[in-house]
Every structure is written in C-alpha cells, then in structure tokens.
UniProtKB/TrEMBL annotation:
One of its GO terms (cellular component) is cytoplasm. GO terms for molecular function: glycogen phosphorylase activity; pyridoxal phosphate binding. The keyword Transferase applies. The modification N6-(pyridoxal phosphate)lysine is found at K603. The lineage of its organism: Bacteria, Bacillati, Bacillota, Clostridia, Lachnospirales. This is Alpha-1,4 glucan phosphorylase. Keywords: Allosteric enzyme, Carbohydrate metabolism, Cytoplasm, Glycosyltransferase, Pyridoxal phosphate, Transferase. Belongs to the glycogen phosphorylase family. GO terms for biological process: glycogen catabolic process. It comes from Mediterraneibacter faecis.
C-alpha cells in the first residue's frame, strides 16, 4: 500500500512529493481520498434514513477521512520520508462553515457513526457560503466578518440534480452538492447540501450586513442570518423551506426509483427532523403527495409514519414559532395544509395548548413535529424526563408511546484517534484496538487504575498536549501561557444559560483575592472559546467582559503568575481539537435543567479532563458513570431550579446585597480598572442585567461553584490521584460514543 500511496500522490502532483508545496499536496490528497471514498460508496438498501438539519459542523475532513479509510499513518509516513509534515498540510485545509454549535456538531458525529455502522443514511442541509461568521476581537469587542470556505479544490461535488422551489412571487432552482461521508472501515454515505446558483457573496457590506430582501443573491450566504428584524426572520423561513422542499423532492425521487408507490413511503424512507428548523418538510411532503395523486388524509397518514423529531432544547424561545402572515408572505402554498393539520388537532383535543396555530395566529413548529411524526426524542435522560414531566407534558399525556430518550454521543474517530494520537497509542498498547469499533471496551482501562507507570504516562501525555496548545496560542494569538498551570477550559456557544458569566465572576473574585495578598496554591489558566449570536447583546457584553479581564489580569505582574485568562478567537472545530486534549478541568456549568445534553462534556471526559459541573444535561449521566470521586458537582438541582421559576422567588439583588464577595465581583465590572480598557455602555448594561434580572440564576450558584472549584484546584496538586480520576473518566467514556447513540436510534426509531 505504501508504494501505492507514494505513486498515486506523485502521479497526481506530476512531480516528486518533496518538490511540491503544501497546497499542492493537500489538493492531491483531497483528490485521492475522494476517489477512495467513492469506491466504497454504499449500494442502496430498500429503506434509507434522511437526517435533515439546518447545520452540519463537519470540521476539516482530510485527516478524519484518512483515519476512516485506514490510510492516515501510511500517508503521514510517506510525507515524512519526503520531508513533509502532515500537520502543516492539515493547516492548508479550510474548515467548512456549515454549522455553529452542538446541534451541528452532533449531526456531523451522527453521519460518521451512521456510515461506520454500515447503515443507509444521508444528511440533508444547506450549502452556506459564509457560515455563521468569522469572529474577530477588536478593542475587546466581538466583531463579525464573513467566514468563506469554498475554494476551487473542495470536498463539495457539484451534481446535476436540480429541483424547482417556489416561493410567493419567486421561483428558484435548488442545486445539490455532495460531500462524501466515510465510515470507519466501512462504506461511504453522502451529505447532500442544497444551494442556489445565483448566490452572490459580493452583496455583503460592512461586517456581515447585506440586503436581506434580495433572496436570489442571499439565500445561502449565511447560517442563521440576523433575525432581529422582520426581513431577517422571513429570510430564515426562505432558507428552511428551500432546504426541505428540495430535500422532499430528492426523497420522493430516490424512493420511487426503488419501486415505492408513495402509499408505502414509510417502507422506503425515514426522516429524522433535527430540531425545529426542518419542520416544514412535513406539510411540504403532504403537499407533494397530494399533487402526485394521494388524497389529503392518506398523505397525512403516510408522512406521519415517515417523520421523527428530535427535540434539542427546553428553552421556549428556541422552539420556533412563525406568524401566519410570515408564512403567507413566503410559502402561501403550505398554509392550507397547516390549517388542515391544525383543524384535525382541534377536533380531537380540547386543550388549546396543543394546537398548531394559536389564538395570536402563530404557527408552533414543534407542535407539527409532535402531532405528525411517529417519534419524539430528547437527548439526555434528564432532558427527556423534563420534556415528559413539564415542558411537553400536555403532549406526553396524549402520546406517551412517541416519547423516548437517545442520549447524545460523539465520534471517537475525531475526538480521540485524530485529536489525541498520543493517548490513542497508549490505549492501543494497553487494551488493544477493539475500542475503536466498540467503545465499551474502554472499560478495560480500569485494570490499570493503580498502575504507577500508566498513571505517569497519562500525566506526560497531558503535559505534552498542554505544551502543544501553549505553542499554538502563542503563534496564533500572541498569548504566552505556561503548561505548568492548571488548564481550566470552557468552550461552547456563548449563552446566558451556559453561564460563562459565572466563570467570569469567579475570575474577578480570584483576582481581587490575589490583589489582597491571598496567593493561590496552584496557578490557573482560564481558557474560553465562544461566539455570540450577532444580535444577542448580553452575550456579546459577556465576551467584552472576558476580553477586558484578559487584558487587565495578563498584564498585572502581581496577578499573572497565578492567574491568566485566554479567550480564543474564532472558536471552531479545529481549535476544539487542540483545546480538548490539553484540558485539566472541564467547565460544564449551565443552570440545571437548561442544557439538553451537551457534548463538549463528553469530549473532555474522553480525553482525560475532570468535569466541574452542575447536575444538568448529560453531566448527570457522566456523574452516574464515574462516581462521586471523579467529578466535581455543584449548584442547585433541576428540581430546585424549576421550583424557583414556578414560584418566581429568585431575586438576584438579594444575593448582591447580602453576599460581600458577590457584590465586590459585580461592582468590579464597572470599576476604574475595567472602564479603562472597556466600553462603559456594555459593562453597565451587563452589570445591570446581572443585578436586576439574572434569568439563569448565576448568583444562586456562586458560593457553591467557588467552593467546588477550589476543591478541584486543591485536588489537582496530588498528580497521582488526579491521573487516576482522569483514567476513570476515559474508561467510562465509552457510553458516550455516537455509535451507541445511533444503534439506539436504529433499534427504536429507524429500523433500517
């Protein structure tokens, strides 16, 4: 094989590998890998899964595909023999801007697992040209700029598949592009991304502003365009309908080509609706089936047996609701169908809370999914219980049989084999390679939990990963940090419920203690990575505060030997792959009951970090698996939080007035030191928000958080015991493989 790879590359390059540039080698590898992936394309089985999602955060693909195809090490060796470094060639590849947070990353992990398990299942989404945005920091503020990624040499394959999509007063064509999805030692599936040929990147002006009404030019420019005005909200409906209309036509074409007569669609297709963004696929499929000769009642029945819905949130504002007049403005052809769907519900159930169109003439997308799909799943055991008991209890009473839990998972190919080769090598040596196909085999590692040599190796590997991150941070951001400090990391979307502000208040408290002469036992580097949605003002203010703290603390000679703050710019998958293997303490500090699952928590655990977290999302299951000694849990429970909301008895100002440490930390936000490097308006607004509102109860958990975090920092001093905690976390992470999640989806929902 080795000669073969060397020959193939040289053939594609038309020159010796040693003579080629990194860019040329990347192009040749991309072409070679695409060909190999194409040769492994799965022959279609009768029934197929279509996983529809507004985002697929797939990350860079070259190395991952080479790992899945089993050629990574050979390619690496061939390149090294020719004086080339695979890491430098990876740097050439742009990261696809097709997603933002956990929702999109989960979809990408799922596609990897579906292919790895040899299941027939393709992704369906949109081909965004400029992503969410590229984050830049200027004057300690987030600035948004376009994030282009599509180059001449790309994983995207343009197809001849084109579908007409009709909006009110506008007909467009949706062209399909494909990205190959390789399975680990298995077949290749596809990610189908729809695009519009007339899209025009030049209409983007200052930052990420553009004309939101020019649909033919803007339709696939950005993921989640700013929805703070009506045109932005309408554009989101245009995007969603474009995705599902083209997707529905593709599904019907593929099924009829295999002999489906439309009445038996559910024998040929199962559609997984990932969050509410693709909901319109239900009325659109009904419309297409009626157009092709089925009567309305049968069309509804057929579609209801074909579609399943994954709920990803209990935040009411994240469950999409669209005014009827918006839908009439963009997709009037769907309104008569949605009205029929609503009418059927109203005839059956008197409870108005389960209707699809409410008395304010608003369409509830999740209600369509629940009534007219055959399965509703949550994404962690706590989340599913909350859906059944409170958030969707009115639906659970009607359809108890539809509700089920599928705890999220992550692909170990990317989040271990690719991003932590040293740990992978140690695992191979100790427990064999079986865990790469069956993650439960990681449990075998527990046999070594008292083995001094193994624990020493874990400490060495972590230190080397920290050194690599230090080098990367210095090269990319000019920040100097020491690998001999505790790396405390919080990386995730910036949202008040995820409570980056709690971490920031702790940092202020720590800073004030050090200034007062209380020197901590162990130095800490607090690392953040997060993008805030462009219209989410308070989230951007939190970033502003963190950047101000970074400037103040890192430049203070009294404090910086003991505490440093780093906010990573433009956090993405590529940066996560460098941060996660280097982490000591994993910050998972959302308000209990608010995080559906979280998957960063799983990636950190797999790479030997210890969780500091609330009993929220999948933290609950991590806690159950690793036991009390190997996790640091703090904060109010989800039951307590839900009760506070019910009674409306949480008053942030009381905590501010009665707790001197909290008061000092919050007052510091608008102190002279901070105002010197920050913007008065942003800092005062954030301070006011925390004191007068604090909807996600930051101050409720402050004392408990501080106490647990100090306990974790003290525990770190005993490196042997800490390494043992890390080992138990790695050994127990097998449950969180997305292969296990996908096996459960298939067993209970898809039946492929």
């Amino acid at each position: 094989m080795q000669m073969n790879i060397q020959e193939t590359l040289q053939q594609k390059l038309g020159k010796e590998i040693a003579q080629a540039s990194n860019e040329e080698i990347y192009g040749a590898l991309l072409s070679m890998v695409q060909e190999m992936a194409g040769e492994k394309e799965r022959t279609d089985s009768k029934k197929k899964l279509y996983y529809i999602s507004a985002e697929f955060l797939i990350g860079k693909l070259l190395s991952n595909n080479m790992i899945n195809l089993g050629i990574f090490n050979e390619v690496k060796d061939v390149l090294a023999q020719n004086g080339k470094n695979i890491a430098e060639i990876e740097e050439v590849e742009p990261e696809p801007s097709l997603g933002n947070g956990g929702l999109g990353r989960l979809a990408a992990c799922f596609l990897d697992s579906i292919a790895t398990l040899g299941l027939a299942g393709d992704g369906v989404g949109l081909n965004y040209h400029l992503g969410l945005f590229k984050q830049e920091f200027k004057n300690n503020l987030q600035r948004e700029t376009p994030n282009p990624w599509i180059e001449e040499k790309s994983w995207l394959k343009k197809t001849d598949v084109v579908y007409p999509v009709s909006f009110k007063g506008l007909n467009v064509n949706a062209r399909m592009y494909d990205i190959e999805v390789t399975g680990y030692n298995n077949k290749t599936n596809k990610l189908h991304l729809f695009d519009i040929d007339s899209v025009d990147e030049t209409i983007v002006e200052d930052g990420i502003a553009f004309n939101k009404e020019d649909i033919e030019k803007n339709l696939t420019l950005f993921l989640y365009p700013d929805d703070s005005d009506e045109n932005g909200r309408l554009l989101r409906i245009y995007q969603q309908y474009f995705m599902v209309s083209a997707g529905a036509q593709l599904i019907l074409d593929e099924c009829t080509a295999k002999g489906c007569n439309l009445h038996d669609l559910a024998d040929y297709a199962v559609i997984q609706i990932n969050d509410t963004h693709p909901t319109m696929v239900i009325p659109e499929l009904i419309r297409l089936l009626v157009e092709r000769g089925l009567d309305m009642d049968e069309a509804i029945e057929v579609v209801s047996k074909t579609c399943a819905y994954t709920n990803h949130t209990i935040l009411a504002e994240a469950l999409e609701k669209w005014p009827v007049y918006y839908l009439k403005k963009v997709v009037p052809q769907l309104m008569p169908i949605i009205e029929v769907l609503d009418d059927k519900v109203r005839r059956k159930y008197e409870d108005e809370s389960v209707s699809i169109i409410d008395r304010n003439d608003t369409v509830h997308m999740a209600h369509i999914d629940i009534h007219y799909g055959f399965s509703v799943n949550g994404v962690a055991s706590l989340h599913t219980e909350i859906l059944k008991e409170t958030e969707l209890n009115n639906f659970y009473k009607i359809y108890p049989e539809k509700f089920n839990n599928k705890t999220n998972g992550i692909t170990f190919r990317r989040w271990l084999l690719h991003c932590n080769p040293a740990l992978t090598e140690l695992l191979d040596e100790l427990i064999g390679e079986g865990y790469k196909k069956d993650a439960a085999e990681l449990e075998k590692l527990l046999a070594f939990k008292d083995d001094e040599k193994v624990l020493d190796r874990l400490v060495e590997i972590k230190h080397a990963n920290k050194e690599a991150l230090c080098k990367y941070l210095e090269e990319t951001q000019g920040v100097k940090v020491s690998p001999d400090t505790i790396f405390d990391i919080q990386i995730k979307r910036l949202h008040e419920y995820k409570r980056q502000q709690l971490n920031a208040l702790y940092i202020i408290d720590k800073y004030l203690e050090i200034k007062a002469g209380k020197i901590p036992a162990a130095p800490v580097t607090a690392i953040f990575g997060a993008k805030a949605a462009p219209a989410y003002v308070i989230a951007k203010d939190i970033i502003h505060l963190i950047l101000c703290l970074q400037e103040i603390i890192n430049n203070d000679p009294e404090v910086s030997p003991y505490l440093k703050v780093v906010m990573v710019e433009n956090y993405n998958v590529t940066k996560a792959e460098k941060l996660i293997p280097a982490c000591d303490i994993s910050e998972q500090i959302s308000l209990a009951s608010k995080e559906a699952s979280g998957t960063g928590n799983m990636k950190f655990m797999l790479n030997g970090a210890v969780t500091l977290g609330t009993e929220d999302g999948a933290n609950v299951e991590i806690h159950e698996l690793v036991g009390n000694d190997n996790i640091f849990v703090f904060g109010a429970s989800s039951d307590e939080v839900i009760e506070h909301y019910a009674k409306a008895d949480y008053v942030a100002r009381d905590f501010y007035e009665k707790n001197p440490a909290i008061k000092a930390a919050i007052d510091f936000i608008t102190s002279e030191e901070v105002l010197k490097v920050g913007e008065k308006e942003n800092l005062e607004r954030l301070q006011h928000e925390i004191i007068s509102k604090d909807w996600f109860m930051t101050l409720l958990d402050f004392d408990s958080y501080k106490e647990k975090k100090e306990e974790a920092l003290r525990a770190y001093a005993d490196q042997k015991t800490w390494a043992k905690k890390a080992l138990v976390n790695i050994a127990k992470a097998g449950y969180f493989s997305s292969d296990r999640t996908i096996e459960e989806y298939n067993r209970d929902i898809w039946h492929l």
